[in-house]
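Pasting as-is:
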Amino acid sequence: MTVTADLDKVLDKKYENLSLPEVLDAPVAALAGLTDAHGEALASLRIKTVGDLGRNKYIRWAVAMADLQDRTH
């Protein structure tokens, strides 16, 4: 199954034409609104790439709880 997504709005310009694996390997500053300073702060949590951020168990837990809250209100 082919899945397509327009990531232009969530990525900085220089990362817009990368493949998904390349985006996941990119630094967190590849995400629109995040800077290298944010990346440095996240590095202390062992989050260096977009993939690390998306796979972080604490972030996943927080997202799951926020989604549950949103669905009940």
